[in-house]
Every structure is written in C-alpha cells, then in structure tokens.
Amino acid sequence: MNPLRDLLEQSIEQYRSLHGATVALCANLGTLSGKDSLAAYQRLMAQQVACQNSDEILVPMLFQGGPVPELATLVAERFELLEKIVKENQNIMPRLLSRMAILRAELNNSREGQTAMAGYRSNGPVSGRVLRRSC
Asked: Residue 108 and residue 53: Cα distance in Å, rounded?
C-alpha cells in the first residue's frame, strides 16, 4: 500500500462529496427555509474542515518527495475537482448573500411589526366592559 495514494484517494472522495453538497445547495437555495439553509451551510463547513485537515497532511507529502508519475492522474483529478469547487463557490456566493439579505429584511420587518403591535394596548380594563351603542 502506498500511503500517498491512499491520502490522495481520500482527498478526492472528500472533495467529490463537498462538490456534490455545494451543487445540491445551489440547486435548492431558493426553496430552503432559513433554518435549513443554516443546516446546509454547517454541513458544508464541516466537509470543508475535513478536506482542510486531510490537505494539511497530503500537501507536504506531495511536495516532499517530488513528482510521482504513477500518481499524476490522481493529482490531476484532484486539481480538476478543486477548480469545479472554486467555480461553484463563485456561483453560489452572490446567491447566498442575496438570500441572507432577504432573510435579514424579513426578520427586521417581523421585529418592526412586533414592536408596532406592542404599542396597541388599551388604557382601560381588559374585560368587563359592555358596549351600549355602536359606532
């Protein structure tokens, strides 16, 4: 077994998973609730941390020994995945930012409405009054 090959294959699988999750989030972004969007974001961040942890071990090993011809296809595949992820991130970031702005505006409107409703309190007793005439 070649530990460098194993790490490369593990890295490729992690990046495939990250890419798939990013594409799925991008496709469903308009239909997710705020809570679901946050959960999807947290899953993406966990996958990204896992990729980063693997890369901290893998990258020094790749540069330490010099080029390994039998691993060239795996390195190229990993590089292509990284390029796809960068493109997806460039695609999804403006959409995420606009989604966050919409959710922030809805939250502010809700808060303003709640504050306005809190101002509509009667000065008289709450119960026990009888209407004797109509307006």
From this structure: 38
What are all long-range contacts of 122-126, with beta carbons under 8 Å and residues at least 24 apart? Answer: none
d(CA 106, CA 37): 15
Q: How far is CA 122 from CA 113, 125, 134, in A?
A: 18, 8, 18
In this structure, are residues 78 and 8 in contact, taking their beta carbons and an 8 Å threshold? yes
Please state the rounded mean pLDDT for residues 43-61.
Answer: 91
Q: With contact defined as beta carbons under 8 Å apart, do 3 and 58 qualify?
A: no
Angstrom distances, CA of residue 66 to CA of 2, 84, 118: 15, 25, 69
Helices 34-64 and 72-118 pack at an angle, to 10 degrees, of: 150
pTM of the predicted protein model: 0.70
How far is residue 74's CA from residue 80's CA, in Å, rounded to a whole number? 10
pLDDT band, very low/low/confident/very high, at 121 (cuts 50, 70, 90): low
